[in-house]
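Feature request, filed as a ticket because there's no other form

It would be nice if the structure record came with a short human-readable summary line next to the tokens. Right now we just get the raw output. Example of a typical job, pasted below so the devs can see what we mean:
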Amino acid sequence: MPLRPVDRDVLSDACRSIAQDNYGFVYVDRDEEEIKSEYQTGEKGLMNADSVSTADVKDGLEEIAAEETSPFERIRAGVYYVDPFGIGIDMGVADELQELFRNQIVITTEQLRQHFDLAHDDAEFFAEELRTNDRGLVMRIVAGNRDYYTVGPKLKDHVGDSGEDLDDKLIHRSRNGTLSHEKLEGAISVAAVSDVIDYLQTEGYVVDLDGEYLVPAALDEFTRWLADEIESEVVDAFDDSGHVVPAAEYDSLIRSEVERLSDVFSAVRSSRGDTDEREIVTGVRDRLADNIQIEVDERHGVATKRDAVEADIESYSDEIVQDVLGGKSTMSLPNAKEAAREQVEQLQLAVTDTANSYLRDQITERVHEQIEEEF
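Raw output as currently delivered:
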């Protein structure tokens, strides 16, 4: 009596069920017993075999994969792949990638292989399946002989937390807003080779400072450190300039003092990230305002050492009012103001014309207030 043939439809369904649990892969040697069990419990035709041997499975899959309309692709002997995206079956691939990238933003091919429990020979094939054909689930970062992968454009909207998690890791490992190469590798869990660093810079996670890395998410800490370091030099500059300097000159002072400590300005210009030089200067200015009361008056275009300027204004005003009104009770209010104005115009209080003009205006305003109080 001739042997009954294998029911190809049942065998195909059995292998497709296994592929769905294996992210599209069927490994005949590894999945052999499960394939046989699935086949045996499937609804077969009366004229078909009730069970299958290993040879039946191998031969049957070879024939199924050879069919023009078959969803099975033969990768190599004993290994088949069902494209989950091509047949419209959710095999959980996107969900697994979300979970994988939620823990780290850059992965190696080996990490991808281990997470999906693939054979070594299939990792690159699977990565390309995820990357190409407009799927965009992963993006490849080529680094010499080694490939790295990160979140692709089609997956990025669903993995929003990964960037936040990486920012948190980088902030946690940073000191004064920067971290070492070793700590960067600890945060991303892969080797920080140049191509990976370029990617991280483009995405705005770090700025390469040639040996260490600025963490833009910790920019406040970095600018706080810069301000603390340059504070004494800024105080000296204001003391030498009559406590008032033009705002543009103040920014130039900050830039020159920062450049003495760090190459951060040139680094952010070449990083292609979102951090810019102005953001750094503004952060340092804000910290100096807290530390030593340097305030920028945008309307008048000057920066002032507030406490010292207020003391100067009060001192000069008192002196001029006393000189104008002392023993001159018959002087009219307009004449008193004019006499005071003439004295104020003679004052040379700061280094630049802009600063002098600002101080004279402030003193004149205070002098007039005091004179009016006397009338």
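Something like this underneath would help us a lot:
The longest strand covers residues 138-143.
The chain has three domains: 8-82, 92-213, 215-375.
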